[in-house]
Structure formats: structure tokens, C-alpha cells
């Protein structure tokens, strides 16, 4: 398991680029979206979500939206600067490759964290 502690630089900061790259080489991180691969199988692989880009079915991803026309993907977090995309529901985006306008749906999921035992 790659640890960020192995990438501490002389100034005490962490070399995140080298850390992420080592994770990809070890198959622990997706080469496309940098997402964590829970059960690494091979070096330089794609996560389950990125693998499904080639399927024609509805595409679900934590980071990317896929153009229904040309299959190009774009990072919603960096390509949309208004906070609206983080609101649950439908939003419109233009494909960065072919300029097709399409709607995507933001689905929000929740998780609930309870205190440690003995803490209230
Ligand atoms: Zn991925
Ligand atoms: Zn497109």
C-alpha cells in the first residue's frame, strides 16, 4: 500500500503528484480520475466507474460527466464554476469536445458518522 508518508519532501510538505503517480503505477488509483481502487488488480488501471465510460448505458461517476453524443468526458468540478451543479437535480452543460448541450443529474448521497464509543 502506497503511503503519503513516503513522499514527504525536505520542506515537510508532501509531493502529491509523485504520490498519486505511484498509486497509479501500483494500481491503487485510477489512471483517469485518480479515484481509489479498493482491490488493486493490475498497475495503471481504471476504476469501475471509468471502465463503464465505454458502455452505452447511463453513466455514473463521482467526477466526470459523459457527452451522450461523442462520449467525451469532462470534469464537472473544474469545468463548472458555479456552485449550482452541487445541488440535487438536473443541470445543463456543453460538451467541451463537440459542443453538444446536454443535461446531467446531480445525485447527492449521504453518510452518517456517529461518535466513537464512550463519546456523546
Ligand atoms: Zn476512474
Ligand atoms: Zn460531445
How far the N terminus sits from the C terminus, by CA atoms, comes to 34 Å
Structural class comes to alpha+beta
Name the overall outline. Answer: globular
Ligand kinds: zinc ion
Average pLDDT, all residues: 93
Unreliable stretches covering 5 or more consecutive residues: none
Radius of gyration: 18 Å
The helix count comes to 3
Strand content: 15-25%
Order of helices and strands: HHEEHEE
Total beta strands: 4
Tell me the number of structural domains.
Answer: 2
Order of strands across the biggest sheet? 1-2
Q: Which quaternary structure do these chains form?
A: single chain
Main beta-sheet strand count, sense and barrel state: 2 strands, antiparallel
Fraction of residues in H or I helices? 10-25%
Task: Describe this entry's structure for a reader.
The protein has about 120 residues and is an alpha+beta fold. The protein folds into two domains: about 1-45, no CATH class; about 55-105, no CATH class. Helix content is about 15%, strand content about 15%. The protein contains three helices and four strands. It has helices at about 15-25, 50, 75-80; strands at about 65, 75, 90-95, 100-105. The strands form two sheets. The protein has a two-stranded antiparallel ribbon with strand order 1-2. The protein has a two-stranded antiparallel ribbon with strand order 3-4. The longest helix is centred in the first third of the chain and has 10 residues, at about 15-25. The structure holds zinc ion (ZN) (2 copies). The site of one zinc ion has 8 residues, from helix 2.
Amino acid at each position: 500500500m502506497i503511503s503519503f508518508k513516503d513522499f514527504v519532501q525536505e520542506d515537510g510538505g508532501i509531493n502529491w503528484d509523485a504520490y498519486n503517480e505511484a498509486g497509479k503505477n501500483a494500481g491503487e488509483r485510477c489512471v483517469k480520475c485518480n479515484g481509489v481502487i479498493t482491490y488493486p488488480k493490475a498497475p495503471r488501471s481504471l476504476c469501475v466507474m471509468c471502465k463503464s465510460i465505454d458502455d452505452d448505458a447511463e453513466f455514473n461517476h463521482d467526477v466526470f460527466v459523459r457527452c451522450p453524443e461523442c462520449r467525451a468526458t469532462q470534469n464537472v468540478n473544474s469545468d463548472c464554476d458555479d456552485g449550482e451543479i452541487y445541488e440535487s437535480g438536473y443541470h445543463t452543460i456543453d460538451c467541451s469536445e463537440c459542443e453538444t448541450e446536454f443535461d446531467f443529474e446531480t445525485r447527492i448521497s449521504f453518510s452518517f458518522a456517529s461518535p466513537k464509543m464512550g463519546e456523546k
